[in-house]
Each structure stands twice: as C-alpha cells, then as structure tokens.
# Entry
Amino acid sequence: MKNFLAFITVLVLGYMIVVSLDNNEAFPAYGEADVSSRVSQAFIDRSVTEDPGDIIFGQATNLESGPANIVTAIVADYRSFDTLGEVTVLFVSSLGVALLLGGKKQKRLELNFHPNFMLRVGSRALFGIILMTGVYIAIHGHLTPGGGFPGGAMIASSMLLLYLADDEFRAKIKGFKMLESFAGTAYVLIGLTGLLLGGYFLENLLDNGVIGDLFSAGIIPIVYVLIGLKVGSEISGIIDNFLTEEGV
Amino acid sequence: MDLVNIVEIIVSVLMLILAFLAINSKSLVKSVMFLSALSMLAVVGFVLMKAPDVAVTEAVIGSGLVTSLFIFTLLAARKVGNK
# Structure
C-alpha cells in the first residue's frame, strides 16, 4: 500500500512537472533559446540612470520584490532555489548525525555535572523568551535582519537550554521529525504550485502588498516561517542525538 | 578619527588577542570560552560593518550553539576518559 501511494505520488508530481514545462516560455526547444534575453543579461542591461521613483516605507505597492530587507529579497525570492539546496544540505547533515549517533534504546548522557534547582527554574523562565525571539525573527524575516535560518537556530538553542539545565529532560523528538518533514514537503509543494500556475519553480504567486507590512511580500514570509520550523526542528534533533546515548 | 573607527580598532585587536589565547591556552574548556568571546566580538564587528543579518546568525550559531556543543562533547569525552 505504501509503495502504491508513493508510486501514485511520483506519477502525479512527474505529470505536473511535464505539463508545466511543456509549452513554457521560459524553456524553449533546444537551440531556440535567445540567450541575450536571459535573466542575467536582462539585469545587466537594466537602466539605472533613469529615476526609479522613491520607495516609501509603509506606502509603496506593486514593487518588483516585496520584502523591506534586501538580503531576504535575494535569499527567499530571487535565489529561493539555492535556499532549498541549503535546507537540503542541513537535512543531509542531520541525517548523517542521526545515522551515526541514533539508536534504539536511548537515554540521556550522564555527565559529571548536575544542574541545581536555581539553574533549572531560571532556564525554564529564559526558555520562553528565547523561543519567542526565535519565532519573531523567523516571522519578521522580510522586514528586519534575520530570517528563517537564524530564527530556527534560536528556537533550537532554546531547546538546548532545556537540555542543559535538566539532566533528565528529553524533548519529544518524534514531533520534531514530523514537523521537519512537513515543513520540507510544504516548501517543495509551494515551489511546485508556482511552477504549475506561474511558470517558474518557487514563483512568487501572491500579491506583494505594501512594503513594511507583516502580511506583504507574497510567499516570502510563508517560506521563511517554513524554513525556520525546519531548521529549528533539525538542529533540535541533532542536539538530542548529541546528548543521548544508547542504553544498556 | 571618529568614534566608530576607534571602536573598530579596539574590537579587532581584542579579537586577535582572543584568537591567540584560544589557540594557546592549556585547558580545552578555557579555549572554547575564548572562542565564544571571539564570536561575540565578531558580532560587534559585523554590526559595525553594517551586516546585521550575518551578525544575528553569528550570535546564535557562533557563540550559542557551537560553544555549548563543544562543551558537551568535551564533558562526554572526559567522562569516557575517566572510566
């Protein structure tokens, strides 16, 4: 049954990709591509001398790319496919750690270091603040510096704080694994939706909105929140693998 | 010379000193601590160079995650050594 479902999924995805690439203006037949109108050439030829008009924070609409943070515009819009590759690199590294260090019966690593009561309570209080900062950074990736990767790492460091302060604590790693696979699948599905409806993989389908609003810049906040969840759960899984050992 | 330049020079000199200490200190735990302080100063350097995105990432990963992973690994290795 599982194999059959996987086969159907692969068939549907393959059909979708073939349909959206067939008769696509961006992918002409072999030898017919006009290299001079390709993306890089278009950007080289773009005029910078004529007045592009002022972009006013909180007012300007219908911009070419929505986010107020220029790094996010490159990472999650122009070069979103590279970001998918980066996420894959992190996934493969966490897979390697899990293959090496993960086992069946696991318990916490016993160290010559036992946290006292004050450390335990204080870190519980700090945990919420660090987690909320991480979530804030991931959600506001298109407005302020930061974004999915630092936000996710901050979420993971709040998990690390819990591990550090309590030598009995273990997170529910199964939930993290499900969250990770959900976020990764959703990222690829958003990209395929763009390919099907807009013509490019990870095309920014939604309206760009007003620059500076929380709900602006199309799919960029969605993608960055997904990246933040994926990175956070992946690094939390790596931390759990580092701090557990196989039981006797 | 304005204030920013002076701060930049102080930060760079401190970073060099900390890097030297991190390499040369006898205790490994102290070495990791110097490395963490070096990352913290690198954050200041990135902010001065107007790269806040890199600064946020460096603050979280360089001085947070990497330091604690090093410390835990050192503690675990020491435990195995004691056995």
In short: Residues 110 and 167 of chain A are 8 Å apart (CA to CA).
